[in-house]
Amino acid sequence: MIDWKKESERFIAELPHPLAPSLKVRELPQAVRLATKTKFGGHASFAEAAAFWGEYQQMNAGLVAQGKQPISPDEYGHILDRLAPVSFTYHGRPPNMYEIQQHRDSSPSQVRQYYGDLPDKTYPDITAADMVKYLALADDPARQHIQRSPAKLEARTFAHANMGYDAIVSYYKSLGEQRSSVDQNPTQRDPAATGLPPTGGQSADQRAIRPALGRAGAAASGADGVSQG
Fold it and tell me: What is the pTM of this model?
C-alpha cells in the first residue's frame, strides 16, 4: 500500500525552494546551517546559502571526478572547525573550498604552516605569520608608551629589521618621549594614531616610524636583532 504522505513529502523535498529557487526544499536547511557556520558572524541569508551550496556541490563534483570521496556536511563542519580559527587569525576570512579539500587530512601544524606562510594581505612582502607575531610582540609596548595599538606598517618594519622585543620596546618608548616633547599639534605628535594626511609626501605610518626607529636600532643591535618567537 502506498504511503501517500511520505510520497508527497518526498515530492515536495525535491522541488525548488520558493525563497531560494537554486536550492531544493530539502537542501535549504543544511545549506543555511553550513553557510552560517562558514560565515562566522551573523546568520547566512538565503542568497548566501544558495551561493555557498553551489560552491560546495562544485567542490564535491571535482572530488568525485578525481576518484575521491565527497565531503559530507558533517565532515565539512569538522574540517571548518580546524581551519577557520587559523584562517581568521592570519587573514580575517573563512577558508575557501580549495583549502577545505586541500587540508581535509592535514594536521594542526600543517594548517598553521599553510596559512602562516601566505603573504599578509596588506603588506605581501612579509608572511601573515610574521605580521601576527610582530603585532603581538608590539601590542603591550605600544599601549604602554603611546596608548594605541601597533600599526601594521610598524610590524612590517620590525619584521624586515628582525627586531627583538627589547628593540620594539625602545622604539615605542622613544616615540612616546617624542610625543611628549613637541607642541600640541596632533599631526606632529603621532601621525599614525591620528590618521591625518602628513606633509612631505610620506604616509602617516611612515612619519610615525622614522623618528624613533634610529634609537630603537641601537637596542636591536644590543639584542643581536633576534626576534622573539
Answer: 0.73
